[in-house]
Design goal:
alpha+beta, Trypsin Inhibitor V, Chain A, two-stranded antiparallel ribbon, 27% strand
Length: 132
Amino acid sequence: MNVRNLVLGGLAVGALVFGAAACSNGDLSAAARPTTATTRPSSAERSTTVANDAAPMVDVVCLDLQAAQDTIQDETDVWYSGSHDATGQDRMQILDRNWVVVAQSPAPGTPISADSEPPMLDVVKLGEPSPC
């Protein structure tokens, strides 16, 4: 009997126990595989699928942090980006939609892949002085 955890949006929403649906080798039958949940590819999958196909970094300046992260993932298949407080106050970005990107590295158009240094986004809180 196998126990698989299903994680959506970073929150564990439960564990599924498979009895008769589990094959003897531990694989799930096609009927038992979740079909509606999307999961992020593992780092091994990302490195083999993306490393060979670098994509140009997109311009995310003036987007809110969540939209910027989503855009980078959608357009480049790079699943991780960092962010830091551009004011120098070292505030953590807890609610990504409350922050706006004011600078980015690498520059738009620079080829990036899963093997590249992760993009770094400089952010300020919405309503604070910015070029946006």
